[in-house]
């Protein structure tokens, strides 16, 4: 059971977690699975970078001392692609050099091992605050808005609770508003981690359902390519 409603924001999010110590990794994964829709766990820096490209996560949790690429090197590479993703760094050391590098890379929280569950949850709450840095309520049109925290669309007096796939799709389009997003990119982002086969029709059905709730004009169809969100 979730211990804090403030962590409900993570319920449709993906976290990428890199830790080379299997015992620690297994314990932390069990905690993360209570809050996130999907937990992608890897054992070194190179795998973290590979998985980031395959399924872009919403939150990063990285150990510093890992084989191949350390956690801060991974963050440095990821920051070139995403400057805003919340990052929790784990380390057995509180050395000044690591701390300064973490500050420069805009780390959300630096946790020194051994840490307990409450410290991890506190760090996750900070991630939620960062995810909420932008508007918590998105206005699409007069009397039509989306509450990011509650995953609810209010269309005049009608309220719609979005499914995980619907909210994940809508928030991805919001993050990339005014950009054309291809069918392939959307499919990979939505379902790249579940191992199941999905088709272009699956995305079309999701878009159709979203348009019923937020209005037809918001999500534009770019024929043969994908979709673009305009607000």
| CATH C-level of the largest domain | Alpha Beta
Question: Helical amount among residues, as a percent range?
Answer: 25-40%
Mean pLDDT: 85
**Any idea what the shape is?**
elongated
CATH architecture grouping of the largest domain:
3-Layer(aba) Sandwich
CATH superfamily of the largest domain: Response regulator
Regions with little confidence, pLDDT below 50 for 5+ residues: 1-5
Q: Any idea of the CATH topology of the largest domain?
A: Rossmann fold
Task: Summarize the model shown.
With 231 residues, the chain is an alpha/beta fold.
Polypeptide structure, described:
- Residues 1-5 have low confidence and may be disordered.
- Helix content is 39%, strand content 22%.
- The strands form three sheets. A five-stranded parallel beta sheet has the order 2-1-3-4-5, with helices on both faces.
- A hairpin with a 3-residue loop joins strand 11 and strand 12 (226-229).
- It has helices spanning 22-32, 45-54, 71-79, 96-104, 117-131, 164-175, 183-191, 200-214; strands at residues 14-18, 38-42, 59-63, 87-91, 109-112, 137-141, 144-147, 152-155, 158-161, 181-182, 219-222, 226-229.
- Helix 6 crosses helix 8.
- The chain is α/β, with parallel strands linked by helices and 231 residues long.
- It is elongated and about 55 Å long.
- The chain has two domains: 5-131, Rossmann fold, CATH 3.40.50.2300; 137-229, Arc Repressor Mutant, subunit A (Orthogonal Bundle).
């Amino acid at each position: 059971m979730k211990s804090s409603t403030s962590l409900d924001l993570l319920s449709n999010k993906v976290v990428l977690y890199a830790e080379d110590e299997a015992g620690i990794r297994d314990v932390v994964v069990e905690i993360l699975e209570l809050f996130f829709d999907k937990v992608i766990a890897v054992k070194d820096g190179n795998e973290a970078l590979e998985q980031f490209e395959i399924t872009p996560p919403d939150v990063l949790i990285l150990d510093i001392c890992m084989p191949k690429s350390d956690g801060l090197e991974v963050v440095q590479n990821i920051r070139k692609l995403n400057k805003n993703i919340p990052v929790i760094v784990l380390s057995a050391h509180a050395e000044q050099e690591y701390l300064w590098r973490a500050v420069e890379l805009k780390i959300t929280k630096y946790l020194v091992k051994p840490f307990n569950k409450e410290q991890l949850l506190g760090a996750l709450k900070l991630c939620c605050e960062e995810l909420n840095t932008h508007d918590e309520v998105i206005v699409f049109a007069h009397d039509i808005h989306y509450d990011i925290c509650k995953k609810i669309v209010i269309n005049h007096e009608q309220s719609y609770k979005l499914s995980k796939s619907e909210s994940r799709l809508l928030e991805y389009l919001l993050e990339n508003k005014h950009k054309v997003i291809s069918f392939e990119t959307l499919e990979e982002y939505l379902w790249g981690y579940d191992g199941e086969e999905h088709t272009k029709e699956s995305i079309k059905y999701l878009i159709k359902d979203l348009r019923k709730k937020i209005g037809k004009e918001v999500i534009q169809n770019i024929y043969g390519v994908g979709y673009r969100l305009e607000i």
